[in-house]
Amino acid sequence: KENQPFYGEHQAGIITPQPAAALVVVFDVLAKDKHELTRLFKLLTTRISFLTKGGKVPDVDPKLPPLDSGVLGPEVFPDNLTVTISVGASLFDQRFGLADKKPAHLIEMVRFPNDQLNLDECHGDLSIQICSNTAETNIHALRDIIKHTPDLLAVKWKIDGFLPPHTLAKMGEESVINLLGFKDGTANPNAQDNKLMDELVWVGTQSGEPAWTVGGSYQVVRIIRNLVEQWDRTPLQEQEKIFGRHKHSGAPLGKKNEHDDPDYASDSDGSRIDFKSHIRLANPRTAETRKNLILRRGFNYSRGISKSGQLDMGLLFVCYQANLTNGFLTVQARLNGEPLEEYIRPVGGGYFFSLPGVKDEKEFLGQALL
Ligand code: HEM
């Protein structure tokens, strides 16, 4: 029940509908050479194929540590779990002899003007996105992976995310709400449309990329703090102008329903939807900007308070695209200087390449790369 298949052309967790809980964890790879890196990818394949399917964990001699943390009880159950493995630009340095296999657009995350990056939460060799119905299932999977890879991986940074379950239940009809109180995901490309995903999300054979990348995707992770105290004291009218949408319905300004077209053609002077609004900058909806469409798959986060006593919460922004330059990098460049910047602060993240899927039991993650 609630099992997201592990085997397939693509990894799960990219076009898979979003469940309520997520976790992104980024590691330094400790493997010393290609041989050890291969051992790591084989191990990850074995663990993920088990965790996403579930099953009984055998008992061992009580003088030994149990095989499983026990967080999910004696029998591991899938709970909609997906575990998505992606690699950072640093994996292609001299350590593993993979320099000539680096995806063409993969770079270390760059700093944009509004960023206030904390280097302890940036970049890394390997990212694992874990999503499922509950935080416990994600933690169980993470602890299982860490337990099996002590000599191969060291945790660098981690962040947990969540989505409101009451809107998730109606996914497809209703969008989830972010912590600024706006519906999020409304204009996302339809992830069930395979042809569209082949165009926008998956690296294809005609991409000019190294052959091993076909079926993979560029992953962008950004930890974007929301300055909610300030936002909650901002007039509704101003909030709506900043996004270009009505707060409660999610409709483009001047329209009635969430999925109505913003109809920029009828608003050539930007008097209805400001030229500097988030949605108009992010997607001007012209023929030339179609290639910049991205698949957003973000989660809310909340984690204590800042040193000055403000709530530390915001958006764990995650997006996927077939081409990092045409996708996130171009969209973020258009958003630079947007009025929303007064209320948000990107503090961490990284760019990664999500490996192609594992087709069957005979294959392992990253096999074509190695
Ligand atoms: C749309 C919120 C950051 C790209 C939206 C919408 C909201 C929103 C409320 C309108 C509903 C929707 O279509 O989903 C936020 C917040 C952010 C943030 C609160 C930061 C905390 C970003 C970033 C990017 C981005 C970093 C990419 C660089 C987009 C795109 C759209 C969108 C492409 C769809 C526009 C359209 O097609 O009409 N965002 N966003 N957003 N956002 Fe963001």
UniProtKB/TrEMBL annotation:
Keywords: Heme, Iron, Lyase, Metal-binding, Oxidoreductase, Peroxidase, Signal. Its main location: other. Residues 11-162 form the Dyp-type peroxidase N-terminal domain. Involved in the recovery of exogenous heme iron. Extracts iron from heme while preserving the protoporphyrin ring intact. The chain holds residues 67 to 436 of 437 of the full protein. It is an enzyme of class 1 (oxidoreductase). GO terms for molecular function: lyase activity. Residues 243-269 are annotated as: Disordered. Signal peptide: none annotated. It is found in: Cell envelope. It comes from Leeia speluncae. Its cofactor is heme b. Belongs to the DyP-type peroxidase family. EfeB subfamily. This is Deferrochelatase. It catalyses: heme b + 2 H(+) = protoporphyrin IX + Fe(2+). It comes from the Bacteria. Its EC number is 1.11.1.-. Binds 1 heme b (iron(II)-protoporphyrin IX) group non-covalently per subunit. Residues 177-359 form the Dyp-type peroxidase C-terminal domain.
